[in-house]
Amino acid sequence: MDYLNAFLCGGILCAVGQILIDKTPLTPARILTGYVVAGVLLTAVGIYEPIVEWGGAGATVPLMGFGYSLASGVKKAVAEQGWLGVMTGGLSATAGGIAAAVCFAVVMALLFRPGDKR
Questions:
Q1: Angle subtended at Cα 16 by Cα 42 and Cα 7, rounded to the nearest 5 degrees
Q2: What pTM value is reported for the model?
Q3: Where are the alpha helices (DSSP H) in 1-118?
Q4: Rounded CA gap, 7 and 58, in Å?
Q5: Which of 45, 52, 95, 110 is most buried (CB neighbours < 10 A)?
């Protein structure tokens, strides 16, 4: 059942993104940024946590999950360190994902010679 919930949750998030791409003049970059901000805001008001409990990886892997991780990290760091946690919590909570993205980007750039399309 966990797999089905993850599939449904991730599928719904992706379907909403596809509808936004197809039916609005928003660029993909704005939609992606909006997903991250939506994840932060929904976490801040307590709505995203039940979605994560239901959807599992279907809710934490997409970009809204990145916003959720940022907000959760800030919340935890503020509880431990006070206001300094506002600046450090999000980065420490997402450092592994950011480092992996940078490392994979470097490897792909070395293997495939990135450049402008002609």
A1: 85
A2: 0.79
A3: 2-23, 28-44, 48-55, 57-60, 63-81, 84-112
A4: 6
A5: 52
